[in-house]
Every structure is written in C-alpha cells, then in structure tokens.
Amino acid sequence: MNRSFLFAPGNHPRRVEKAFALGADAVILDLEDAVAVSDKEAARKPVADALKRNAVGPRRCRGYARVNAMGTPYCFRDLIEVIGKGVDGIVLPKVESAADLHAIDWMIANLERERGLAAGAIDLMPIIETAAGISRIDRILQARSLKPYSGTWRVRRAAFGAADYSHDLGLSPSREEPELSHARERLVLASRAAGVEGPVDSPWFHLKDADGLRRAVERSRRMGFQGRLCIHPDQVPVANSGYAPTPEEIARAERIVAAFREAEAKGAAAIQVDGQMIDYPIVHQAERLLRAMKGQD
Fold it and tell me: Which of 22, 129, 260, 273 is deepest in the core (most CB within 10 A)?
C-alpha cells in the first residue's frame, strides 16, 4: 500500500536509519529541501549507502530518494550517484512537463542497464507543485501513452506539493485548505484519466495540530488520494490508519460483491444492500477496494 511516504533528510545518518523502522510504507531520503546547498553534494553517497544497506535482508518498507529539480545544477549528478541496488524509486520535484519525465526516464533506464538492474524496476514519482505543473497535469500524466525508454512506464502515481504550489500562486491556505481543492481535484481527475494510481497528498505542515491532520487525511481520502507525504514520524500512524479501509468498509465491500454476484446469476443487476441501491459502478468500486487490500490494484 502507499499510505505513508516518510521524508528523512539525507545528510542526517541517525534520522535516516531511524526512518526505516517507523512503520511507513516507504521512506524518502531527501536531497532537496531538507538539505542545505552547501551539503547537497556530500549527501549523495550517504543516501545511496543507506538505501543499499536497508535493502539487505527483509526490508520493512520501500526506499526512495528525492533528487533536486531538473532546473537545478544538482539533478543530473544526484541520479548518477544515487541510483543502484536498494533504490525502489526516485521522487522528482517541481515537474512541469511531460518532457521532464521522459528525460529522467531516459537517464534512469540507462543507469538500470549499466548497473545490472531490471528494466523499469525503479519507480518514478513526480511531485506536481507549481502553477505550470497543475495546468499541464493532463499532458504530463498522459505521457505514459508514449513509448518509454525503459520499455515500461515507470510513473505509477504522482504527488502533490501544497507548499510550493501556494508560494507559486501567492495563496495563504487556511487550515481546512479550500484554496487548494481545485489543484487536488485536477490531480485526481488527471490520474484517473491517465490510468495511473490515485495520487499521494501533500505534507501536513502544522505539526502541533494532530486533529487537523486527521481531518485533512479524511478529506484527502474521500477526494481520491491514496496516501500522504509525511514530514514527521508522528504523522505516519495517522496516515496509515486514515488511508486504509476500515474493517467495516472491507466487510461491506465483501457483502456487496457476494450479494451482487448471487443476484447477477439470477439475471438481476440492481439490488439493495444495507438499504443502498447497488448496481455495477458500486460493485466495481467494492471490487477495487478488495483488490487493493490483496495488493492486486
């Protein structure tokens, strides 16, 4: 599942090692915002070593690296020095065009080939966090329809970056963040239209407001997001529980599927379950939830 992606600054060894044991579905070792310019080059090798080291034996979670944006002097060398065994994915910030993804895909594909990694094994998760990125989101995600260099499209989901997006537009979002609803809706819609997974939501920056985070997670999940970027360990269990189906939801989905299959065998395609009318769209949604719980979606 992709409920929680926990950031850890790549230049803090103790926090890096601790991050892998905190129960997140994935850890993102950061070379971008969490690392000062003066330390960016030095942080690359420790990040690569940590990902390789934590891949030995049964890994408790996946390991990603967030490289610097393509428009910086650091991105190219970040990829060269970080990609190798133990890297499950690359997080690419400030993506603004399909060309960005194709360029990075080309680089990753060649590094996979050169370093003996399976083609397409490394996930690429773009963060959409500017006005240009949101305005072009359909074209960015539809780029999957073009033949990629790796032979398989490696972008399985996108993430939203609310802080940079707000800065870019001059927004001052309130705690309930209605000012960001349009961008989130665009990202969810474009993801579905492109046939990729539901997106991953932005970090929650109000670290003292746990109730606000729970409300944000609930809104986010209802809107179509599948998980959240986390910037503090305390956010991980909230994301894990908030984006996972509840036992009641799973049981209801099982009742819906079983009742509908029985009715369908008798020629009926519209029934009632728990007082709600059930037809094919509702059944497909229930089946999708159950597939996700089995790791098949």
Answer: 129
Lowest-pLDDT choice from 119-128, 136-145, 172-181:
136-145
> Cα(126)–Cα(138) distance, rounded to whole angstroms?
13
> Would you place residue 149 in the very low, low, confident or very high pLDDT band (cuts 50, 70, 90)?
low
Q: Is the distance from CB of 128 to CB of 134 less than 8 angstroms?
A: yes
- Return all residues near 164 (Cβ < 8 A) that are at least 6 apart: 93, 94, 129, 130
Q: Which residues of 131-161 are buried (b: 16+ CB within 10 A; e: fewer)?
A: eebbebbeebbbbbeeebbbeebbbebbbbb
Task: Specify the DSSP class assigned to residue 246.
Answer: P
Q: Which two tokens stand for residue 243?
A: 């984006």
Helix H or strand E segment including 191: helix 181-194
Q: pTM of the entire structure?
A: 0.86
- Is residue 142 within 8 A of residue 98, CB to CB? The reply is yes
Provide the pairing of β-strand 276-278 with 271-273: antiparallel
- The region that residue 170 occupies, defined by phi over 0 for left and psi between -120 and 50 for alpha, beta otherwise, is left
Kindly state the helix (H) or strand (E) to which residue 272 belongs, with its residue range: strand 271-273
C-alpha span between 228 and 195 (Å, rounded): 20
Cα–Cα distance, 222 to 262 (Å, whole number) = 29
Q: Are 157 and 2 in contact (CB under 8 A)?
A: yes
Task: Write out pLDDT tens, residues 90-118.
Answer: 999 999 999 999 999 999 999 999 999 99
Q: What is each CA distance from 243 to 51, 240, 258, 294, in whole angstroms?
A: 26, 6, 24, 15
Give the angle 215-219-221 at the CA atoms, nearest 5°.
115
